[in-house]
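Researcher: Before we compare anything, I want clean individual predictions. No alignment, no superposition, just each chain on its own. First chain goes here; please echo the sequence and then give the structure tokens.
Model: Echoing the first chain and its structure:
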Amino acid sequence: MLVVDASIAVKWVLPEENSDRAAALRRPEERFVAPNLVAAEIGNAVWKRVMWQDFPLADGLSAIDLALTHFTQLIATEELAARATEIAVELKHPVYDCFYLALAERERCPLVTADKRLLAAAKKFKSVEVRAL
């Protein structure tokens, strides 16, 4: 099982740098989990494309649906909020990213991200293995 954040999920469905590497993670035997916050973050990435890159809305909506199908399970943020906030304070990093760290810690599995800021912050958080894409 892997926790993957929106930086990976977006690369599964929208052409971006290293989309091929993100797609390579999707092996039949692999299970992906994320906080349900990932849906909002994927939606925000699609919104940016639609608003500023002449990306068709219908394609964006399909991309959101497709990205979410790759997750075995989405975990309610309510289950992770307290721990994510503790981690955010400890790392001095935005709480949104720390939901992924809290889930990886709880599930005792790696977090995979393409987010350079999250990778840098997570180096100080030794209880979770964080992998760069």
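Researcher: Okay. Second chain, same rules.
Model: Second chain and its structure:
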Amino acid sequence: MVRLAENLPIGGTAVGTGINTHPRFGKLVAGRLSKATGVKFSEAANHFEAQATRDCVVEASGELKTIAVSLSKIANDIRWLGSGPRCGLYELSLPSIQPGSSIMPGKVNPVICESVMQVACQVIGNDTAITMGAMGGIGSLFQLNVAMPMMADNLMQTIDLLANVSRAFVDKCIKGLKLNKAIASGFVEKSLMMCTSLAPEIGYDEAAKVAKGAFASGLTVREYVLKHKLLDPKRLDELLDARSMTEPEK
């Protein structure tokens, strides 16, 4: 975003030559803008480049798109983890911003998560438009880019949308999230992949047998190992410590 402020294409007049304008016009305008906004603006060092291309806008839009994609990933994960309360994951309880639906009483819709994802779609669309506007032969024609108004409009919309939805996401969803610890830990305990930590102790093939045996019998990995006395209970607790799996020894 800094490149936008430091590459102000004003004062170049015709295609960047600066003809028929005061030589300090661009610098004075940048100074006025800096004072009014608190953002440090500066005149473009190369007016020919700044008026013929808007690569800095493409760069800024790409960075904002990356933020939008990251937010969408987070929002979608939360939406899935909040599915339920039955026939879903329900590891998280989402705030009841829009409880109920037109046909399903009591349903809690993940509307804030989905608003974030919709904003991401719009931001990606804006980024595509900005990209096209900067391309040679479309927006950028030899010494002048004729798509600057469209690019500016899309960039401003992207900034507004991301700013607004980020605040809403935090205030109306993130702050009110609750972990359903019993459900989450229950899924971990039931996971057949818990036997992965057993492989260094009992061997890969034996660990695979444990996974298959636990599945066939309906037991957890812990229950199966204890039933068949494959490991000492204390050592088993150490190996099946889920938190330690997230922080393996280096």
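Researcher: What stands out in the second chain?
Model: The mean pLDDT is 93. Additionally, Residues 1-52 form one domain.
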